[in-house]
Queue: 4 jobs
Job 1
Amino acid sequence: MRGEETYGGDILRVQEIRGWSAVTKIPHAPAHVLGVLNLRGSIVPIVDLRMRFALERAEYTAVTVIIVMSVNTPAGRRDFGVVVDGVSDVVDVDLAQVKPAPELGSCGATDFIRGLVSVAERMLVLLDIDRLIGRDLTSLPSGAGAKSRRPARLDGGGNEHREKHRRADPRSDRRRLGG
């Protein structure tokens, strides 16, 4: 990232690392939730870590990647993607060398940090992905990251129509369609 910050997470949570691709925006989602991607039939929310950390925005380039990770939420285990400036190395971290995050006085400022460790003369901030992203996923508008329970179709103008499940009039075999 711009200030040479380096972040790390549990490699066992990584499902895939892929190049940047455009996302489908979700109305009323938090600003750092860019939208969703359809990855092999799964709808995956995409979070920009720069925006989540209130850092200066950067252009998405050829080295910008999306790391698809598995996170534990109150609703269960779900996949999500994080947009990062780039990926460098996988490093082994000696847990005995991990230092706790400092108390910064601000409520929640370090809640998502598992600890800090020096690796090759650089400070690595170890993230608690469940705390960092898990709350975001459960706060997304209904339907984001979940499959719809009712059939839907799009008309030529992109407007979504859902079949309303109402008890049929005994005199008629018609169902009402509404938008």
Job 2
Amino acid sequence: MPAMLFLLPQAPSVVSTIGEFFEAGGLLMWPILGCSIVVVGLALERYLSLRKRRVLPQVVIDAAHQVTEGHADVITAGILEATAPGARVLAAGLRRRGCLLADVEKAMEDRLHDEGQRLRGNARGVWLVATIAPLIGLLGTVLGISDAFAAVEQTGLGKAESSESLAAGIKVALYTTIFGLFVAIPATLIAAHLQARARHLVAAIAEVIAPTIESLAALPVTAQQAADRTAETSGAVRSDTSDSASGDASDDEPEETNAA
């Protein structure tokens, strides 16, 4: 019985199967393999960069609360030197501190937009590779079919050699297409997930930073000047009124004395 087990056909190993598959696909399997390596590298870099504690650390959240409570002076120096995307957005508002509300809001919105573009940076590379890989596979398909028909044209359709050449060409075409799709489908899913993660982090930054805009802004200078003039005018009127009232009272006192 044990001897019969050795006579049974052994299943090919995974390594040999992948190796044969890769070798049969031809030279265009190498560019597709390079695309897969690029996807892995870009995806790892983005997943490490798109961690919330790196994009919006707790220090930035606490600093935003300090700004809303009116203690911006306490955190200004630390936030201006920080490198986290959330800190850079808050720093843009701190640099416009005391300006008009529209100016502060515009500065922080522009910075948030720039940080969002930066967070999505290498995700675009994953999208690009996901587009290129199946195109390379399609090129292998075209070349394989072209070689197959060229071989058939030389040897003739009725011969066995032509049939083998046709089968080999179609095999190359199928292998490159399969490998290209094998790389492109996961790359597309990874790119979509990275884009969604970046959008979520940008929304989280906006939610934390939005309450600080009004705290960092101030009234327009003209409005302040008008308010100062109004206060000065009302104060002058009150002082004139009190002086005239005291003058009338002093004038009435001699008349009352003469009458007596």
Job 3
Amino acid sequence: MLDLLQMTGKQRQFVALLQSQPQVESLNRFCAQHGFDINFINGFVRSGALEGYVLWQEQIHPTWRLTAKGEDLGGQIPGMALADRLLNGITDRAILQAELGATFSLHYGALRREQAVDLADGEGEGQVVVLKSSVLAAYPQRQALFSQIAAGPLTVGQDETASGTASLDWLQQQGYVARHRTLDHCLTVLPALQNLALSDVVSALTSELILSGQWQQVTLKPYDIQAEVPDVAYGRPTILTQCIQRIRDIFLNMGFDEMSGGMVESAFWNFDALFTPQDHPAREVQDTFYLANPQTVSLPEDAEFIQQVRQGHETYYGGQWTEAEASRAILRAHTTTTTARRLYQLQGQDGKYFSIERVFRNETVDRTHLAEFHQIEGVVVGELLSVRTLMGYLTYFYERLGFKNLKFKPTYNPYTEPSLEVLAYHAPSGGYIEVGNSGLFRQEMLEPLGCGHKSTVAWGLGLERIAMLLYGVDKLSDLIGPEIAIRLNP
């Protein structure tokens, strides 16, 4: 039964509005119109307090909504800005790059993946060539539907035209929208509620009511001493967890997709696929953790792929490349293993990917080294990528973290050429420390992976080193353990 004295102000307001109409066809819409929290009202209706006063019936409405990936786009789908200009006859690459700025590569890559455009060579060099005008013509409809869904859920079946269905299918394939089942209720107000007399209830006894004596004439809401109190959670994310989430948000906002891999890997993916010779010092037990159980991990089933890796090693490094050495089981020494697997899956498709995962190296633990730490992996596959592209991505990333004093120093990696170390200023030590390694993948590595015709830039950054800079700690061990007493640098 409905307890008039125990009802909250919002509940009384809701009941009063129900008395003025015989039926509510959509409780969701009703709550939105009158400013009620739908979860609060659903709980009130389902509690049984209105039993005998209203009849309610569940309704399921399938709708289209933006995914997290779609929400990160900022209202415009990749490719739309370039498609709009190409449809208006602007094909000069210099003009398009000037108008679109840093987003040109993003929009061009989106259209290129659909084989709708290409960059002209020879006589027409400097022009963006339209290969499939039908694809460009579909973008305004796709954008219109995307904007409509961004403004509010779109009921399934609302756009039944062929072009609308095709655009929705495309948006779903890109991961920008998804179907959801929306729960709603239809309420029928019974005569018992329509005839119910609601009187004002005072929930707070004020000094004015006491001094004036009006407290004797009003109805006071009684206190419920049995009411449950909120359960306060005292836990909080660790320092490294906060750093991981902060860095993940930066890369997602830069248009990257996240990838992941396993901690146990074969030496093939950790070294051989990355064009690291089988006699390289990094493969010694002094640097890499080899497993006793299992001792080996199966190689890929693609025999042609393995043969290409074998030929590359034996041609360039000499000697005999063996599958026995390549199949040894290890704890991955870097997350570039995940990148190699993704490149093999892409087979030359453009893309931007990142991962933040744990790696293991048999190193002596000191102020700036750990045997177990996190690596921030990043790779961009595309066309016309260069050292300037690489430095631009890394500079933008570190600026988003608040770092201004960066240095790039040439270095050597077996699988990148050219290669750059990334150094950042560390105030506690008064000098620069290495925070990552980067470079352009070598063709000898890319060709077996099916990406030999593409250019790639990649990097591996140390999460704990970045946390040292963010929190101003002197050694990595200060970031780990149950007793951490640090504060964020201003």
Job 4
Amino acid sequence: MFNAFSPILSEKASRTLALSCAALALTASAYQCDAHAATYPYDQNTIMVGQDSTYQIERGGTTTLEFVAAQYQLGLSNLIEANPGVDPIVPVNGTNLIIPQKALLPNTKHEGIIVNSPEMRLYYYHDDQVDVLPIGIGQLGTDTPLNWVTKVERKRANPTWTPTAKMHAEYRARGETLPTVWPAGPDNPMGLFAIYIGRLYAIHGTNADFGIGLRVSHGCVRLRNDDIEYLFNNVPVGTRVEFINEPIKTAQDSDGNLYIEVHQPLSMNEEEFETLDRNVPFKFTKEQEEFFKHPDINQEILQQALNERSGRVVLLNPAEF
């Protein structure tokens, strides 16, 4: 399992996107700068962190969407959801992008690490703050776990990778050969750091310049290398880890403002995975159904948010004048 595609792209489109991003990595590298960890103050009353902003693609040269995503601690899926119609590989020069960094905190226990697969984000609660990091997750058929509570079992710098028999078969079918054990080093698909959770899975780095915000792994959680190094140095063994499947997040603040954040649900079968997933149905929880009935909610705004699935925080009861 130790080995992360977008919930709004078909498998074929996802593979094409990944290969195109890889081919353009060197082109974009001239523009790259270090991303800063998205870390926010947190207390028991915090329901939302971050702020949305905008970014204009340069009018000359080549700027990939992956480059912009990495700058702002986002995955590709986050930018694609918030900017429908924009080329997911190389946006048109001069395009203004929405940078969706505002996020509702997941509706679960705010302790340790929370992995919310549909939004392609990992939350780490510690020391009166919360870190929000973009992730890549498992392909259909080798899915990242959902609705699972476990803990950090151990950590390893410079991990090796031992492919399973199934992985060897997959690669042989593509005309590729895997080593019995992939040695440690920068070319290792697990990157330079690994945090092992449960017995079969890991949170780890990558040897690629793409894949964050996509379904590309064999079930593990993939992070950019700076992010996994940060977690490796700060997450103790024994830390609680929870995996959730929450494409819809809702919240109400102390002033009575009602919010929703809607992402594409994860495809659960080939038919859903091959239809661009725009029509993947939601499975509302009882709590969500009750929330939607709140008398102060503007139902038109609610339906628009559920239809657009932009991954952005939406105020459902704006003041009316």
